[in-house]
Amino acid sequence: MKMKHTMLGLALAGSVAALTAIPASAMGPTAADLINDTKTPGDVTTYGMGYGQQRFSKLNQINRTNVKKMVPVWNLSLDSNQPQSQQPLLIDGIMYLPTVNATLAVDALTGKQLWRTPLELPEDVYNAVCCGNHNRGVAAYEGVIYRTVIDASIIALDMKTGKQLWKTVVEDYKQGYSLTVAPVVANGVLITGISGGEYGIRGFIDGHDLKTGKRLWRKFTTAAPGEPGGDTWPGDTYKRGGGSTWLTGSYDPELDLVYWGTGNGGPWNPAFRGGAAMDNKYIASVLAIRPKTGELVWHYQFSPNDAYDYDGVNENVIADMKVDGKMRKTIIHADRNGFFYVIDRTNGQLLAANKFVNRVDWAKGIDIKTGRPIDSEMTERHRKTLVMEKADEVWPSALGGKNWNPISYNPETNTAFVPTLNFGMSYRLVEQEWKRGQFYIGMDFTGFSYDSKQPRGYLKAIDPVTAKEKWSVPLPIPYFAGVMSTKGGLVFTGSLTGEFIAFDDQTGKKLWQFQTGSGIVSMPITWEKNGKQYVTVASGTGGVYPLYSGDERLKNVPTGSSLWTFALAD
Ligand code: CA
Ligand code: CA
Q1: What backbone phi and psi angles, to 5 degrees, belong to 528?
Q2: Ligand 1 ion: nearby residues, β-carbon < 5 Å
Q3: What pLDDT score was predicted for residue 438?
Q4: pLDDT above 60 for 386
Q5: What is the pLDDT of residues 434-489, one digit of tens each?
Q6: What whole-number distance in Å separates Cα of residue 240 and Cα of residue 82?
Q7: Are 488 and 62 in contact (CB under 8 A)?
Q8: DSSP string, 15-45
Q9: Regarding predicted confidence, which is higher, 127 or 266?
């Protein structure tokens, strides 16, 4: 016993300062506050506006009849020309949010900055970042704010002061790893993913100790020989096989399962990873894992042997609904691959999978019995081909039928509001060797294919089980912002040209808009204080579409980001 104490004393000696700085107790949010987030619409304590990531608020003071009277209350510069793709949290009248160069606490009623803690970053850290520099949000738990940093580290900050409590380096950014994901605290564990799927990484999901940042477990998302699924990778291809985990998992506290999506295979060439004979577990999948241990309870693979950069990372929204006349506990998921999935979240059984975009070339459909896609002839050919002479056109493109920006789900009307994309890509496989910090995709990417007669995207309201449209708004320039819906009958999202917009949730009619000064690629929230409802959104353009689309209409959209809060005029 005595010996043990001495050893513990020694082990802690180096980090005593850090440990004593942890707030002693009882500041929120507590575990119950996180679990009950959707029941307490005044505050937003979780990424996704609830562990289930429905992005639906029960607030209805601002509604379809009065939204035209919504006006800005304050604006705060975020002191950055980088994209703002985060979702703020709102706890006890204080807003917490990350940017790519600092972490902030803001008085939510006045917009006054309460603290701002800058990040210290090495200059070469941006070399292995495919699609701009991002951070999606913070997690809050018992007086501490947790966030990821682009240099593949995680930091914890005192909620009151912004003082850094600890930092954990997850992986070496020089090897192509980075971190942009909002962490989640589930069952007392801090869970994070990893980015770098275009740089030949091997993906994983990590669980960390909340007090020290020490890693408790790691679940790799590509299977090594001898592990379950290890026989779905030829040779040592799993080592650079991708499966990044760059968007936050949802959590069902009753089942105690976290649902986390995994990214594309690396390189993109499917034949390099064994072709049709090899599924490459567990890329382009959703993994149901135990937050305490990282144990994989079930998985469902959206795109086995993924060939087209169809990251399966998109949000897995928790929803209970009738399927074939029977109430089911489900997750719903709009995949990059163009299909909308309804999956039993207790066991991973596929309940429905339907096309939610105009055109899908890679598969003829999803076999509901086996849960597997039915390859098109083109895909069959691609799975056998390492190097292509001539390019094919493939729809959806590598950006998907829907990109990372999350859907909203109204549980009262069983409707999903989905920002969709409507374009293809030129696809020609080439040979590629892995080089540290360089693209490792094995594809000659020459650009996207647009249909000049069709819009490049739609905002759609759909029935999750059939993927049938209730309404659809054509978008000449597609949206890359998160969607939020409210009991007030409103659907909020933002455009790349800067308009923050409210639509009627029953008809898709545009009811209100406001020009925020830069493009919107973030996730709005709504909250309430002293009986008044507010809506907050960050403005600041960037990301994959402005970078790679060649869309001339976005050429003059200003950078320069800020945070806006709106309410009804008094
Ligand atoms: Ca809440
Ligand atoms: Ca990718």
Answers
A1: -140, 140
A2: 37, 40, 43
A3: 86
A4: yes
A5: 998 888 999 998 889 999 999 999 999 999 999 999 999 999 999 999 999 999 99
A6: 29
A7: yes
A8: THHHHHTS--S--S--HHHHHTGGG-TT-B-
A9: 266
The phi-psi region of residue 271 (left if phi > 0; otherwise alpha if psi is between -120 and 50; otherwise beta) is alpha
Rounded Cα distance between 259 and 253, Å, is 11
Residue 472 Cα to ligand 2 midpoint, Å, equals: 27
pLDDT at site 14: 34
Q: What spacing in Å lies between the alpha carbon of 141 and ligand 1's midpoint?
A: 13
Residue with tokens 């669980």: 207
Place of tokens 């937003």: 44
Ligand 1 centroid, distance to 481 Cα (angstroms)? 21
Q: What is the pTM of this model?
A: 0.95
For 218-238, write each residue's pLDDT tens digit: 999 999 999 999 999 999 999
Is the backbone peptide bond immediately before 282 cis, with ω within 30 degrees of 0? yes
Q: Which ligand is nearest to the CA of 49?
A: 1
Q: Which two tokens stand for residue 254?
A: 């009753």
CA atoms of 491 and 506, how far apart (whole Å): 9
- Name 124's Cβ contacts closer than 8 Å, sequence gap at least 6: 174
Strands (DSSP E) found in 272-344: 285-289, 296-301, 317-323, 326-334, 339-344
Ligand 2 center to residue 263 CA distance, Å? 6
Pairwise CA distance, residues 143 & 169, whole Å: 22
For ligand 2, the distance from its centroid to the CA atom of residue 178, given in whole angstroms, is 13
482 contacts 56 by C-beta, under 8 angstroms: no
Strands 484-486 and 56-57 come out as: parallel
Residue 131's pLDDT band, with cuts at 50, 70 and 90, is confident
| Chain-centroid distance, C-alpha 444 | 26
Residue for token digits 């993906």?
203
Please, is 413 exposed, middle or buried when counting C-beta atoms within 10 Å of its C-beta (0-12, 13-18, 19+)?
A: middle
Q: Which of 139, 214, 247 is nearest to 184 (CA)?
A: 139
Residue at 54: amino acid letter: Q
pLDDT of 70 reads 98
Half-sphere exposure of 497 (CA within 13 A, CB side): 12
Report d(CA 28, CA 261) in Å as an integer.
Answer: 28
What six digits make up the tokens of 318?
């928790």
Q: Which ligand is nearest to the CA of 311?
A: 2
Q: Which ligand is nearest to the CA of 263?
A: 2
Query: What span, in angstroms and rounded, lies between the C-alpha atoms of 232 and 545?
Result: 33
Determine the distance separating the centroid of ligand 2 and the alpha carbon of 136, expressed in angstroms: 16
Burial track 18-50 (b if 16+ CB lie within 10 A, e otherwise): beeebeeeebbbeeebbbbbbeebbbbbbbbbb
Largest CA distance in the chain: 78
E strand map for 187-316: 189-192, 204-208, 215-220, 250-252, 257-261, 285-289, 296-301
Instruction: Please say whether the dihedral angle defined by the alpha carbons of residues 493, 57, 322 and 36, taken in this order, is positive or negative.
Output: positive
Q: How many CB atoms lie within 10 A of CB 459?
A: 23
Strand-pair category, 285-289 with 296-301: antiparallel
Q: Which ligand is in closest contact with the Cα of 200?
A: 2
Mean pLDDT confidence for 323-343: 98
Residue positions annotated with a catalytic role: 309
Residues in the chain: 570
